[in-house]
Structure formats: structure tokens, C-alpha cells
Amino acid sequence: MDILAVMKHTVTKGPFATYRLHKKRQEEKAKKERERLRKLEAERKARLSEEENVRLMSEFDGRIKEKYGDEEISKSVYEKELKAFWIKEVYPKIYNEEAQKPVEHKVVFMERGNGISASLKYMLNYMKKNTDYEIKKFSLMGNTVEPEVYYKRAKDYIREIATAKAIFICTANDLTGYFKIRPETTYIQLWHGCGVFKKVGLSTIDKAFGKSAESHKEYPINTNYSYVTIASPELSWIFEESMGIDKDAGIIVPTGVSRSDEFFDPQFIENSYKKLYEKIPQAEGKKVILYAPTFRGEVATCTSPDVLDVKAFAEAFSDEYILIFKHHQSVKNVPPIPEEYENTFAFDMTRGKGMNINELMTVSDICISDYSSLVFEYSLFERPMIFFAYDLEDYIDVRGLYYDFDEITPGPIFRTNEEIIDYIRHIDERFNKQEVIDFKNRFMNCCDGHASERIAALIK
Questions:
Q1: Strand 346-348 vs strand 366-369: parallel, antiparallel, or unpaired?
Q2: Domain boundaries along the sequence of the chain
Q3: Are strands 134-139 and 166-169 parallel, antiparallel or unpaired?
Q4: Which of 63, 156, 366, 454 could share a disulfide with 255, CB 3.0–4.6 Å?
Q5: Under CATH, which number does the domain 266-446 receive?
């Protein structure tokens, strides 16, 4: 404001209002300048990073030529050499150099796959709303981009965490296996599920699904953690076994799981129902059956079950229910819904359809799953669960389970569509709510709506 404008504003609005307006404009100007400088710095870093990538790949190509000469090598040999180069040499060097710098007032969130998962998203939003840390997030696009692209993206993540106050991840990865995280940084594994049925990590050694002991030794996938947050003390032994963590290390902590806090938020619940009726108007006045199975096979090439008989379900329940499919996010090609019932009785909300799994669990009256960990968080609603385990013996042989499935499941186990349909028809008299409550109290007793608060307090 020029002097004349200031004088006029002072006369008409008063000196205090004029001062507040001037201060507001100065703050806006300063904010724009900070954004401009941040953008310039980001562009500078991106330019330097790309120059570094060119240099590193040139160095790698030279090594391959020196080692193999003009011999044509297979894709698997090339990728093995590439992985060793980045993880064993490049990342330790970059991290140790950057870690000589002071720790910055920032926290880093890393998703190994695409986008950002619910486990990270809720914690990220909590930190953004309740702390003054600068937030950095990385999506490395694992399994969806070429290995060279993945390792280059991961390099920038490694550089950033070297000066971070805290790091949050939610899946296992082998990127930090060849260096130690500095003691000033708190490294927190949020994990991507609230509980565990199927075996993972070190528990799958010698299983068809798992990696070999030699592979785990060469590229350890759960290293350097300060804390692993879990939903209940009952689950501690599973994470100790699967991650190779000593039970007395104090690393595995029953804080509750961050993303479960959403289920205790009345606004989130209200918004979930509002979104349901916007996305699926046919849901108005009807109940919701959610079918959310886990994947089958290796993650990179996994498939989803195609055994639920949509026609039979529609004939039995279309007057009272709608059916929503939510396949595992790793499945690239989901089974199609029969055209006759698609978007009338049955709806696929797997990817890009507007509702995430937390929202879908919130609005569902019945959940049909199998060996997926989502049934742990669904137990918080104390609603009916059905376990469609048509391939139980085969699944145990391939993957293995931590518990006796017949004893632990808080609902009936069925192998056929007919059994499920019959149960739902008589659900009012057959549903055992106390069974679900007991399951919740055993496996989810630290999820009370305040997990994120406790997790944030872990940062040194």
C-alpha cells in the first residue's frame, strides 16, 4: 500500500485494521517468495540429480563392459549387477556423505510402490496438521518402472533421509541394508496392515512364495528400524519372527496403527457414506456386502480370485444389498463383473473409482474376505465377517499362516458360494458378535483413535 492508500484506509477503517491488512499482505508476499525459492531449489536439485544419474550409469556400463567384455548377458544377470551397484555401493556412499551434514527439521515418507498408501497417508496428514516439520514424500514406483528408473528415484530418497529427523515407511525394502541410519534419525515402520494371517518376510524362507535364506542375507529387507508400530502386543512375536528383530530390542511397540484412527472420526464416517451415495446412487436404502480378497501368486504377477458367483448373489440379494469388489492393489488385471450385473448390483472399486479400502470398510454391513489382514481393522466395527477360503490347503502350502485358521477367524469359513448365500440369508440369527469383539480385543486393543499421536511422540 502506498502512503495515500494507507492514509485513506486509516481514516475509513481505523489504524488497527490498516495495520492488520498491511501485515497480511507482507506475509503473503513473504510466502510467495519462499515458494519461489523452494521451486528454484527443487529445480536445481533435479538438475544435479540427473547429471549424477548420467555419470553413475556411465560408470556402471563401464564396469559391465570390463567384467563381461563383448559377451551378451541376460536380463537377469544385468539386473542382478545393477542392484548390487546401487544398493551395495552407490547408496552407502551417498548416505554417509550426506549424513555429515546437520539434521534438518523434516520428516520423510516413502512408498515403495505407486502413490501413497493409507498407512502412510494418514500419518503424513497427522504430521502436517499437528507439527511444524517440513514434509517430504517419495513414491518409488517399484514393479511399475524399469529398474534403472526405480534405483534413480530411490537415490534421491536416500539422499533426503540422510538429514531427516524421521523416516516413515509401510512396506519392507532392501534399500538401507548396506549402511547404518544415523542415531539422530528415527526410522519408523508403520506396516501396511493392522494384523497378519499369511506369513511374510523371514517366515517365508523355503516357501514357494518366499525368497531364499541366501537372498535375505545378501539383501536384508528390515534393517535399521528404530520402531515398528503394531496394533496389539499379541502380534509382537510375528513381527519379531518375520523381521528378525530381537524381542528385547524395544523396537516393536504396540502404539496402535495410524490409519485406524480414521475409523474413530465421526466426520470421516459421515464423509464415507456421503461418498458412497455419490459414487453409487443405487446404494441408497440398501445394505453393502464388501468382497475384498487378497492376491494369489507372486506380487509382480499376482492375480485375484474369480470364484464369487455374482449371478447367484444378485438373484439372492439384489432387493436388499449391493455388492462391492475391492481387489488387492497389487493385482493389475482384476476379474470382470458380468455385464448384466455391473454397475446395477455389483460394483468394482479397486483402483481409481473414488473410494479407498478404509472408506469401503466403514460403509459395509458385511465383509467377505479370505486371508487378508483387512479383517483385523474391520473388527473395529463389530460387524459380520465371512471367510471365503475355497483354496485353504493350497494357500497354506504355498504361503503358510501364522495361526490355525479354523481357530482364529472371527466368523464362518466357507468354501462355496452356496454356503455363503445361505449364511447371509440367516445372518441375523447366525452372526456371533461376541466372537468379533473377542477378536478385536485380542488383536486390535491399541487402536483407539489416538495411535498417530503416540507414534509421533516416538520421534527423538
A1: unpaired
A2: 74-261+452-456, 266-446
A3: unpaired
A4: 454
A5: 3.40.50.12580
